[in-house]
Amino acid sequence: MTKNSNMGRQRITMAKIAKKNHLQVTFSKRRTGLFKKASELCTLCGVDVAMIVFSPGKKVYSFGHPRVESIVDRFLTQNPPLRSSTAHQLVEAHRNASIHELNIRLTQLLEQLEIENRRGDALDNIRKAGLNLCWWQAPIDELGLNELERLRIALEELKKNVAKQAKKVLLESADHKRWQFLAVNGIGHANPFENKDNGICRIIDQAYGYGDGLF
């Protein structure tokens, strides 16, 4: 088995990425992280934030709390919007509460996305390690309930196939030795198509643990 050449997490050189596809993937990940940090800042500190990002493909992405337009207007005019009435204040409070809930939900979704990305990376590593590692020896820490259930079913099927093949090999070996004994000792002729003794099958089950049930 070859040694793992992975030296752990390495420091990324801060320079523009040359490959276009790598550039786009990195931009998408960093943009998501940037907006996540801005959302957390709004939730934890109650601040107003506006962010505008232009992608390498000239697409515009923005994040704002409460709204990008209002914050940009305040920045340009240095004049915050007037709250002239109680009704307007209630509307603003309700809107801010809704935005706060949306920011919390966004943070939760981003965390779930990060978990799924880590799980996908773990599965990719398992597939890459498959060249030097049997699939049933792969780490299962990152597998979910569905993946574990499929693995259990696969192990059940593997156990049945191994038991079936072991019985077949031992029966064929017993037949071969029987024919050799009859040929050497000149004892009659046996029917090669007759049913074989099931005692061998029972011996295999007892010797190798191929009984009913895996767990």
From TrEMBL:
SUPFAM superfamilies: SRF-like (SSF55455)
MF annotations from Gene Ontology: DNA-binding transcription factor activity, RNA polymerase II-specific; protein dimerization activity; RNA polymerase II cis-regulatory region sequence-specific DNA binding
Family annotation (PROSITE patterns): MADS_BOX_2 (PS50066)
SMART domains, alphabetized: MADS
Localization per record: Nucleus
InterPro entries: MEF2-like_N, TF_MADSbox, TF_MADSbox_sf
Coiled coil: none
Kinase listed as a keyword: no
Gene Ontology biological process terms from the UniProt entry: positive regulation of transcription by RNA polymerase II
UniProt KW keywords: DNA-binding, Nucleus, Transcription, Transcription regulation
Gene3D superfamilies reported in the protein's UniProt record: 6.10.140.920, Transcription factor, MADS-box
Major location (coarse): nucleus
TM segment ranges: none
Superkingdom as given in the UniProt entry: Eukaryota
Pfam hit, one: SRF-TF
Protein name per its UniProtKB record: Agamous-like MADS-box protein AGL62
Species per Swiss-Prot/TrEMBL record: Herrania umbratica
Lineage: Eukaryota, Viridiplantae, Streptophyta, Embryophyta, Tracheophyta
